[in-house]
């Protein structure tokens, strides 16, 4: 079995988690591949780029949700399974906390787990198409004036917003930026997409949950200079007045390995309580 390891060294301090896992795997005859970004650890493994890493059977990710997002889309294209270990703060996508990692990898290697499959969306702007696991955002950036946008679903006018931007998120992304902007939480097994205006200058403008098989069309009607198209936290393209982008359901999905005791609602409650406390 091929095991890939992808880690954020800002979270995996001195590569301790990566090193411990490699030392566990090598004597058990696993083929171990490690992200080339971790070559500084000088481990006796094959170092490779993200595309090669995603060709492994299982990719173990050490970090927070941002780290997981950076490798998840590569894994979606290859059907590699992700086992995510939270070394960050929120960690909605992680299967376990690092303190829980001991004694469980034998179960993972023997297939004693369940899969949690998350759908992605395609975001097309001009000649460019992007994959998003969490969300696509049109945002005003540093300009002071609001954006004006028009949103259509399957060609029908859904709303026009004067706002700081618009978020189109998957159920996975409903606990991310959209939640901070007042959007609802959507369970990951719901076939839906969420449209959330950011600080809309209208009392009637509210988040909308629609079927993910629909096509969402968003036009930037007016921007003071330009707006940004942001995919999963990264600015990928500038948009000017008159530009349009489309959001559709992707043919790709990504599978997260979960222990059989994992329960989405228990994990959600745990994370929400943590982030609602003042002593975190």
Automatic annotation (TrEMBL):
Gene Ontology CC: one annotated term: cytoplasm
MF (Gene Ontology): ATP binding; metal ion binding; NAD binding; NAD+ kinase activity
EC number: 2.7.1.23
Compartments in which it is found: Cytoplasm
Location (main, coarse): cytoplasm
Catalytically driven reaction(s): NAD(+) + ATP = ADP + NADP(+) + H(+)
Cofactor: a divalent metal cation
Residues annotated to bind NAD(+): 65-66, 70, 134-135, 145, 164, 175-180
Active site per database record: 65 (proton acceptor)
Keywords attached to this entry: ATP-binding, Cytoplasm, Kinase, NAD, NADP, Nucleotide-binding, Transferase
Class in the EC hierarchy, top level: transferase
Pfam families referenced in this protein's UniProt entry, alphabetically: NAD_kinase, NAD_kinase_C
GO biological process, alphabetically ordered: NAD+ metabolic process; NADP+ biosynthetic process
Listed HAMAP family: NAD_kinase
Recorded family membership: Belongs to the NAD kinase family.
Function: Involved in the regulation of the intracellular balance of NAD and NADP, and is a key enzyme in the biosynthesis of NADP. Catalyzes specifically the phosphorylation on 2'-hydroxyl of the adenosine moiety of NAD to yield NADP.
Name of this protein: NAD kinase
Gene that this sequence comes from: nadK
